[in-house]
Amino acid sequence: MTSGKPVKTHSSTSSNDKPLQHTYSNEAYRKGVRLLHEKCKALQRSNERLVFRIHRVQKMSRARARDVEILQSKLDSFADCWRTAMDPADVKEEGEE
């Protein structure tokens, strides 16, 4: 009487080769996954650094714009004619031609 299942045959050469091949491919797969995971972590760290720098530059830009507005309003309150003044790069020093 058989149950319909295939009968397993045990041969010493085929049973020893398959687990080793399976183990090697499994180890190679794990190594590949580990390397890919490390690359992803490195890329994420790099992206986080870039995002931090972007936020820092945006903060500095907002602070500069705020400082410029404060300076402009302060000069306007002194009735300084800074808006119509000559550009310092255009002003020639004495003795220059």
Index terms:
1 helix, mainly alpha, single chain, 97 residues
Could you explain the architecture of this structure?
The protein is mainly α and 97 residues long. It is built from one helix and no strands. The chain has one helix at residues 12-77. The protein starts with 11 loop residues before the first helix and ends in a 20-residue tail after the last helix.
Secondary-structure blueprint:
Blueprint: H1 12-77
Which radius of gyration do the C-alpha atoms yield? 37 Å
Distance between the termini: 116 Å
Q: What structural class do the secondary elements suggest? A: mainly alpha
Number of helices: 1
Beta-strand segment tally: 0
Beta content comes to under 5%
Q: Average pLDDT, to the nearest integer? A: 82
- The SSE order reads H
* DSSP helix fraction: 55-70%
| Model regions low in confidence, pLDDT < 50 over at least 5 residues | 12-16
**Biggest sheet descriptor:** none
Shape: rod-shaped
Structure summarized in a few sentences:
The protein has 97 residues and is mainly alpha-helical.
